[in-house]
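Exercise 7. Predict the joint structure of the components listed below.
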Amino acid sequence: MSEPQTDLAPESVELTPEQIKARRRRNLWIALSIGGFMLLVFLITLAKLGANVIERPL
Amino acid sequence: MSNVAIEHQAGAASAGDYIALLKPRVMSLVVFTGLVGYVAAPGAGDWVLGFAAILAIAIAAGASGALNMWFDSDIDAVMTRTQARPIPAGRVAREEALMLGLTLSALSVVTMVLAAGALAAGLLAFTIFFYAVVYTMWLKRATPQNIVIGGLAGALPPAIAWAAKTGSVPLDGWLLVAIIFMWTPPHFWALSLIQHRDYADAKVPMLPVTHGPKSTRRHVFVYSILLTPFVLAPAFTGLGGAAYAITAAVGGAFFLFLAWRILRSKAGEGIAAEDKPARDLFGFSILYLFALFAVILVEKVVAG
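Solution:
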């Protein structure tokens, strides 16, 4: 441990517990947003296709 | 390591700070006028697609707000009304606001293309561009007509929603736009009479700063008169019914009375007691616009 490792980045920035918590919350919101957008696109697709899917020429 | 922690204080931004970047109060107004445009447009509409279209308008408004806060952080830092915003307060970096604004712009336009087609998406993209680039980057710092022309961005949501539902925007859709467009100047100039010192400090060329309070009071009165025919027009095109006609006429008369009181006052001269007429019109203008759109909404819902 006396020599700092060069291949792995040394811990140059230490986040406070507060910042780690804030980062986790932000990540959660981003995940929820992406999930929400995917769900929305899915619902739009259903609404757009709707009964038309059945009526398409085979 | 404690100095590093302080440098990275921006990393402690909460979800609330990012929501503040989206200007939720502007967003709620835009959602409301967009919703009225959607309901007022003929046809039944699909509720999922309608929800997606209104959501896209809301996200686009938020994106515009973030882009505005990115570009205007220097002005916001000077004006007391805006000093506590996330960027001047140091909780969010400017680049974060820019990236959030660009990402949400793209998401909103993509959503609108999927849900409502090219016209609504095109109008939405134009609105973001108009607010972020034409108004924020150019007009706001260049001319006292900034809010007159820039108000178009805030006025367009009903037309976007109308296009989202029907694929076109007829006269009635543009009438809703015209009402908000003509309402914006007296509304904001009344506010600027109260806050002109802030604008002067930030070097924003608002009318009281460039032409003085007397000219601003005249402008408020003249633009209030110009607003009147647009507010009454829906009663004649069939967009609004009897309840709308009464609301528009009675509210419009009171609006003109308040504007006339501003004309006769010394509002904006730096004496707080004299600013009351301006504060009254500013407050009533919000209630009036809300009432006009709410009546159209209720009339359409009741009529089925």
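Discussion. Chain B touches chain A through 19 residues (CB under 8 Å).
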